[in-house]
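Q: what sequence does this backbone want?
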């Protein structure tokens, strides 16, 4: 009996799908055995090794960290959050984690920023989540508004392209404003004029490990400019001209390149050649800036000021979707002594979908050495192997 061709094709497709289904269910497990399994250049995830505190003299909470005037050992620093009123629950959760593991011992103030006024409820509930002082700051219009040289029509056209490329939040204008503010404006807020260090905290993040020393003081005493926990690849389609603009800038300002730069980390093409190609020469490796503990003197330097202004004029915060993470990271990798960038391996941290989870009795609630609890293909987004290879674990 002759079977019509379209029916035969359909039959074959059905069989194919069935086989695919069986393979999905019974095929080899896709979950990597451990983080080290899938990482070239990183034989074993260092988070599997027992982790203690950084070496050297650390400041403890036994004295000088009481509230108000008793806190004579606290340095010039704040916890810092840009957050929306609607994110109150997530903010409280993040605060509770950080207060429990660290800040209830050291009582650093919290400074909250918003592009609209905070509600009384937001202020009341966040104040209840800490013994420390809380400040609520409105972002000046001229820091948040889309700059005059950005063309609305080009922005709308670009947003379509970003959407076609599956770039998350590509068409959400406020997301672009947020990235620009976090890149080059937050540290210019008058409320931070007399503050040097900050620890950035986003709603919904988690902290897992007890930290028993003053991390700000650690930054200051050990001459650290920037501390990170997670180091990732970025989506190249969100930043096609970021590196070309950077190269142009560096041609005008070769004097800004630090002799102990991290250029190899920024330009590596060995591990993910297609990322480097699509980002026109940038590896896309960056510190994941939803966590950052840093010295604002770096952002306030002439080199960074000039770099940010160059990028801002180039328009990529709106016509592409440049994030503050790659912008901060490129600047650090070029202008800063890379030995001043510190991996806070002892701070257990999660922002969906990635973790930093050390092997330490001080940690609870995360799985040691786990990098992600998302799909296993996310494993390849880990750029720590390159950071460790080119710069180290300091
Ligand atoms: N006040 C305010 N905060 C924002 C806005 N957009 C983003 N944020 C904050 O900026 C940070 C990053 O935004 P988020 O939505 O978490 O982006 P993601 O982490 O990249 O998914 C979070 O702390 C948000 O609360 C905004 O329009 N207004
Ligand atoms: C804190 O740091 C800021 C910015 O670097 C500086 O202007 C201010 O004088 C410092 N304040 C104290 C008390 O050290
Ligand atoms: C930090 O820098 C200061 C001033 O340059 C220097 O005296 C000190 O030894 C440095 N400390 C460390 C731990 O590198
Ligand atoms: Mg977030």
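A:
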């Amino acid at each position: 009996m002759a079977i019509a061709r379209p029916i035969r094709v359909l039959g074959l497709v059905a069989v194919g799908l069935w086989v695919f289904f069986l393979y999905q269910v019974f095929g080899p497990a896709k979950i990597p055995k451990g983080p080290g399994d899938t990482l070239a250049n990183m034989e074993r995830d260092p988070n599997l090794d027992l982790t203690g505190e950084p070496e050297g003299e650390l400041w403890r909470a036994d004295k000088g960290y009481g509230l108000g005037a008793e806190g004579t050992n606290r340095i010039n620093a704040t916890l810092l959050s840009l957050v929306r009123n609607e994110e109150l629950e997530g903010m409280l959760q993040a605060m509770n984690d950080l207060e429990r593991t660290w800040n209830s011992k050291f009582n650093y103030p919290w400074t909250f920023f918003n592009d609209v006024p905070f509600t009384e409820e937001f202020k009341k509930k966040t104040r209840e989540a800490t013994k420390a002082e809380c400040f609520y700051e409105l972002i000046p219009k001229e820091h948040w508004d889309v700059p005059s040289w950005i063309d609305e029509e080009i922005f709308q056209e670009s947003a379509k392209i970003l959407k076609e490329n599956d770039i998350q939040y590509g068409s959400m204008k406020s997301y672009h404003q947020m990235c620009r503010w976090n890149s080059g404006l937050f540290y210019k807020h008058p409320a931070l004029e007399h503050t040097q260090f900050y620890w950035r905290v986003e709603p919904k993040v988690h902290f897992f490990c007890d930290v028993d020393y003053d991390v700000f003081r650690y930054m200051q005493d050990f001459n650290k400019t920037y501390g990170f926990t997670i180091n990732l690849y970025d989506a190249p389609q969100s930043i096609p001209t970021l590196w070309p603009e950077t190269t142009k800038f560096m041609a005008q300002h070769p004097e800004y390149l630090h002799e102990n730069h991290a250029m190899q980390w920024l330009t590596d093409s060995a591990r993910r050649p297609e990322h480097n190609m699509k980002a026109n020469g940038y590896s896309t490796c960056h510190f994941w800036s939803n966590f950052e503990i840093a010295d604002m003197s770096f952002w306030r330097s002439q080199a960074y000021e000039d770099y940010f202004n160059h990028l801002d004029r180039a328009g990529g915060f709106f016509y592409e979707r440049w994030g503050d993470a790659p912008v901060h990271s490129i600047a650090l990798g070029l202008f800063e002594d890379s030995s001043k960038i510190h991996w806070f391996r002892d701070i257990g941290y999660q922002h969906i979908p990635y973790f930093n989870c050390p092997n330490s009795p001080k940690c609870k609630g995360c799985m040691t050495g786990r990098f992600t609890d998302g799909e296993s293909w996310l494993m390849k987004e880990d750029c720590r192997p390159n950071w460790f290879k080119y710069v180290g674990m300091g």
